[in-house]
Design a protein that fits this description.
Strand order of the largest sheet: 4-3-2-1-5-6
Distance between the termini: 28 Å
Radius of gyration: 16 Å
Largest sheet: 6 strands, parallel
Strand content: 15-25%
Number of strands: 6
Shape: globular
Order of helices and strands: EHEHEHEHEHEH
């Protein structure tokens, strides 16, 4: 059994403000291609922490793919309870729809937000309990994932943990050579 943690940019860090923007379609199509590749290597569980942006797009792709690949599972491990409380109503509805279709949902800390340590401990827990991470992050556009990337690189150097980093160049190459707008 293989589990992969998917994480990366929040939508505003990419200047994405609507889920129907072309960039989201390309990201989702790329994620779908990655998931198919990883399933050939034994992927069963996709893990996210429930962040807006890349993580919820991955969840939507996974839910869509589960129709064709029922063995694919989605787990949402949030850092703490009710992490979505400050989101607008549309994002909260979207999140509720996603968690209603997930195979497993839980909070690492069984309390509401108490401090930044909860994010750090949640990251450590997820790294300790997954087989791989796929991180959407490009050093050319620094944003919140840079802190996780630093932890990920350190963790991988000390263990046999593997990870892939998706960059903007990867998405550009995918768009040029593999992306078919009609299929997305």
């Amino acid at each position: 059994m293989t589990s992969i943690y998917f994480t990366g940019y929040k939508p505003y860090e990419l200047n994405i403000f609507k889920d129907d923007q072309q960039e989201v379609k390309v990201i989702k199509a790329y994620v779908k291609s990655l998931i198919i590749q990883e399933m050939e290597e034994g992927l069963e569980w996709i893990i996210i922490s429930g962040q807006l942006g890349f993580e919820l797009w991955v969840a939507e792709v996974t839910i869509e793919m589960k129709r064709k690949y029922p063995q694919l599972k989605l787990a949402i491990l949030t850092p703490f309870l009710n992490h979505y409380n400050k989101w607008n109503e549309a994002n909260q509805e979207k999140y509720q729809n996603i968690i209603s279709q997930a195979d497993y949902v839980n909070a690492i800390h069984q309390s509401e937000y108490e401090g930044a340590f909860q994010f750090q401990q949640a990251n450590a827990f997820i790294l300790d309990n997954t087989d791989k991470t796929i991180l959407f992050y490009d050093d050319e556009q620094e944003a919140s994932p840079k802190f996780f990337k630093s932890k990920l690189v350190d963790f991988a150097e000390k263990t046999n943990y593997t990870y892939n980093v998706i960059t903007f160049m990867d998405l550009q190459d995918f768009m040029e050579f593999n992306y078919n707008e009609k299929e997305s």
